[in-house]
Amino acid sequence: MDLGSLTVAIVVGLLGALYWVLKRVNEWVYESKLGEERRSRLPPGDMGWPLIGNMWSFLRAFKSGRPDSFISSYVKRFNRTGVYKSFMFGSPTIMVTYPEGCKQVLMDDEHFIPGWPKATLKLVGRKSFVGLPHEEHKWIRKLTAAPINGHDALCVYLKFIEEIVVSSLEKLSNAGEIEFLTELRRLTFRIIMHIFMSTASEAIMEELERVYTNLNYGMRAMAINLPGFVYHRALKARRRLVEILQSVVDERRAGKRRNGASKGKDMMDALLEIKDENGRSLTDEEVIDVLIMYLNAGHESSGHITMWTTVLLQEHPEFLEKAKAEQEEIVRNRPPGQKGLTLKEVRQMDYLSKVIDETLRLVNISFVVFREATSDVNVNGYLIPKGWKVQVWFRNVHMDSEVHSEPKEFNPSRWEGPPPKAGTFIPFGGGSRLCPGNDLAKLEIGIFMHYFLLGYKLTRVNPKCPLRYLPHPRPIDNCLARITKVTPQAK
Ligand code: HEM
């Protein structure tokens, strides 16, 4: 071997050794602490590179438009164990990707607590639900969830939602080219603001909605707090949200001092007046963090799913016709003199409900949720060590061809027949942290679709527009489109 070839062989050998060492740093640092016996029970997987772990492959998969390739690379390398070790968002992590395992983690409050990345917690607030201890979470959740999702609440909100949907569609149909997603986010934001802060001025509402967009983009971005980076902008957005909401809290508290307790006008009043059995009320920080969380959770996902339901139906005329026929039937069967929808009618939208479920399954707006193990737990025969993070991969459950056949196809008919097996359809999560806005969200989408299907058409400017998957799946043009009225003659 000449000197040149020898040098090349040495360099290749050294690089190979360096690669081998670097790929094992996270294993040595985090697994060696577990001891041999516990280590041997870890699931298979790959702990990635020092510091960044598997974040690079995760972001590459999502940013290249093939989000499912991230988990499928684990399945290919380590088989369908449904539980894999990894290193994500700065922590050793177990990813759970199969229905029974996801259900087990979601239902088990004794061994799992929320485990969102520190960077996300900084954005949502340490006093929001994801940062609260179990008892406080239960207390504030009880106060806020029933008034949003109960039958009586939905009856009250229905009229308001209907009004705002009817007027928005009318306005949008005269607006020319619009970003359909942006408009729907505005619409759903108005609804959640009405529930939580009904007296907020138009200016506050508009600024809050704008600032939330930046907050959201930072939710699943790399936590790089440097000017120009998405996460930096998101932190700035959070500071602005706190400022705005603090001024509203100050105003309300001053009003209460002047006029005494209000008669529970909206959820913000309820949060300001709540007391636990020891007479403790919420601090400003707690009220603001709960508001930031609800206002955000309460409009982003519903806005996106409403857009996708409309887009997917338009792309599948056979399903659109069926959904439309159902809405026409509802109107035909309406007693004379009745104006507008009733909750009973919304509950009769059986086919539309399947369309919405199929949209939730296919779009995977919340593709993963985060937990942390509070003690050693067994899942599918593997160890989740105490203190490790756990990711519950809803997206994988919904897109696994062994759980849902032809998972990439939009096919509402798959929901005909018996209800899905537990854990196989979990767009709203489960257990004590099940989304408290699930019925409200479906009501909003149902009402929008009712009026849209009966009177409007969406024409996209770029129907083949590429998608962005983080933080939520959306066309990169925010669904640039025209909404036009469909007159009976033009049908
Ligand atoms: C299509 C719409 C929606 C989807 C797909 C969705 C999805 C989810 C999911 C998956 C979770 C569980 C998170 C976890 O387990 O850690 C969740 C929690 C939550 N959602 Fe929703 N959501 C939607 C709409 C709403 C609405 C309209 C509201 C507001 C009323 C809302 C408020 C919340 C809150 C406050 C939590 C935290 C619950 C807790 O930790 O106890 N969501 N949502």
TrEMBL record:
Its cofactor is heme. Keywords: Heme, Iron, Membrane, Metal-binding, Monooxygenase, Oxidoreductase, Transmembrane, Transmembrane helix. One of its GO terms (molecular function) is heme binding. Heme binds at residue 435. Gene3D superfamilies: Cytochrome P450 (1.10.630.10). Its main location: membrane. GO terms for cellular component: endoplasmic reticulum; membrane. It is a single-pass membrane protein. InterPro entries: Cyt_P450 (IPR001128), Cyt_P450_CS (IPR017972), Cyt_P450_E_grp-I (IPR002401), Cyt_P450_sf (IPR036396). GO terms for biological process: brassinosteroid biosynthetic process; brassinosteroid homeostasis; gibberellin biosynthetic process; sterol metabolic process. SUPFAM superfamilies: Cytochrome P450. The chain crosses the membrane at residues 6-22. It is found in: Membrane. It comes from the Eukaryota. Belongs to the cytochrome P450 family. This is Ent-kaurenoic acid oxidase 1. The gene is KAO1.
